[in-house]
Amino acid sequence: NADYGIYIDHTSAYFIIKDCVIGRARLAGIYLNSVRNGRIEGVQISLSDTAVYLLNSHENYLTESVIADCRYGVVAAGDSRGNYIVGNSFIGNGLNGRDPGEWNFWYDESGGNYWSDYTGSDSDGDGIGDEPYHPLSDAYPLISPPVEWTDVSAAGYTYAGNTVAPDGSLVVNSQTAITLTAADPGSGLSEIRYSIDGGDFAVYTGPIHLTGNDGPHRITYYAVDKLGNEEPRETVSFILDNHPPQTAIAIGEPKYEDSRGTWVTSKTRITLSLVQSSTYGRTITYFRIDGGGWRPYVGPFCIYGSDGPHRLSYYSQNASGIVEPVTDVTIFKDDSPPVTRGAHAAGPIDGVKTPGSVKVEVTQPPEEPATVETESEPVQTGSETEAPAS
Question: Which residues, 6+ apart, have CB-to-CB distance to 209 below 8 Å?
Fold first, then answer.
């Protein structure tokens, strides 16, 4: 229950942190401040606020470690860049990590990391997911944990979820079971009392389920032993979100559909709309074209650039941090009408006219870079615009 398990600052000397077990750090299991050239290997960090916090740290290596049941996994803050986080098991964390600048490496040629919330498939059975782990740019997510975790049950509160809102609150729905546990080595435990949103205290008899409107809720709890001794009261913040986002796409006119897919022109307006979203806060939809940077959706847009297939990806995120899976669709753009050219056969031979014939050719104009245009202005699809971390 210390603030830090290991704290190192302002050094470029090579060091190794190895074979450690760190738990219940109030701030960070391992904190590196302005550190370069360090290696963290074979470490298990659990039940902490943040497992590994990198502040203005460069070229460090985290591998063969387990990060489990932490509010945040690995956080790269400030000017932290060039750090490798590869070959680790991330299990049941709130946010597995934050890398706002995408300046760090979450995979190498050997693979990436195991993420317990990864939902992709492994069609070829090589142990690496077919789709990237989007929140942290891991192109080669591992299907199985490379390092096993020896689980230790938590004291205090536990809940059946692993999502943390941007403000640090735990995200639940009304089906999420919130459990309170306590122990007293002396006279023994008498009871646990709890209160929801400042209401009257009740005796805890089983898992708690939050109900009501989406948004912030607080549970305050404490235990009492058989002599009447009361522990200090603790309060945990939750965000109730019973409406995960769902996004629909509508493709305007002109369009044409055949067995190959949907065909559009640069005048076809594409609209993204929310079918479902939380009643708390603002839900934001993001999209990108052909793997470019993520852009917040602000209104109908058109696809410009070269004719042919273009991949449109989109998803929405509630204010609570709940994110829907990314949807990918392929749209074919065709702005080029066919061009007909006529070519006459050879002229008269020995003064004799021969019947004419026509040869028809169809050509396409040269390709141009693909762009996407919203109602405000056209933007190159390759531009780097980043969606917030999830």
Answer: 174, 175, 176, 177, 178
